[in-house]
Amino acid sequence: MHLEVRPQIALTEIRPADKPALLEHLAAREIYENTLRIPYPYTEDDADQWLAMVAQSTREHGRPVHWAIRQNERLIGCCGFDHLALGRSHRAEIGYWLAEPYWGRGIVTAVVGKLCEHAFGPWGLGKLSAYVFADNAASARVLEKCGFAQEGYLRRHFFKDGRFLDARLFARLAESLRR
Ligand SMILES: CC(C)(COP(=O)(O)OP(=O)(O)OC[C@H]1O[C@@H](n2cnc3c(N)ncnc32)[C@H](O)[C@@H]1OP(=O)(O)O)[C@@H](O)C(=O)NCCC(=O)NCCS
User: Fold this and answer.
1) Which residues contact 121 (CB under 8 A, 6 or more apart)?
2) How far apart are CA 146 and CA 109, in angstroms?
3) All domains in the chain, ordered by first residue
4) Average pLDDT value over all residues in the chain
């Protein structure tokens, strides 16, 4: 699996050898603060569990559904699909994070564009959704630039660090739906 995003940036399978990069990038609290399932502080055990989960989900789906965002082969972020059930559901949810030194260069906008191309093209999905914490303007902007529209403002939708968080639900529809 190798999806070219733009020169030097590609999406490929996540590998056990990515563990040091995961530990380095996820030591940053900013990623934790804007996501739901990434622990902080991020430990070796967390990385091992995530890598095992990714390997299991690859086996279950018969293909990788979580991908490394790589710059010149080095993992600089991750993206992927949740609730993917190809052939049984037309919908899936996307998620993504990028290491802080690479923010603001249009990388995730290009990555989400590629995820849409793949999901609506070869996979034939009809709808992609994404949940964004209400204060995450950068992620909302990425989705808007990629043709997603806000479908709802979800009050107290998530619970994190002892408080309820509002969220925005975004979605993009495929131009044509095959089934
Ligand atoms: C959100 C995130 C994925 C963005 O990745 P990125 O590669 O920096 O995004 P891009 O450079 O493609 O686009 C970012 C856009 O947000 C805008 N932006 C950045 N910070 C912003 C802010 N505080 N308020 C409003 N817009 C902001 C940028 O200006 C840019 O829009 P523009 O092209 O119109 O100028 C990245 O910052 C990240 O991983 N954050 C932590 C984890 C996370 O939030 N994951 C998503 C969970 S839903």
Assistant:
1) none
2) 7
3) 2-173 (3.40.630.30)
4) 96
Contacts of 44 (CB under 8 A, 6+ apart): 19, 23
Q: Give the predicted TM-score (pTM) of the model.
A: 0.97
pLDDT in tens, 47-64: 999 999 999 999 999 999
Determine if ligand 1 sits within 6 Å of the CB of residue 29.
Answer: no
What is the predicted pLDDT for the residue at 177? 66
Pocket test for ligand 1, best of 25, 94, 103 (most atoms within 8 A of CB): 103
- 97 C-beta closer than 6 A to ligand 1: yes
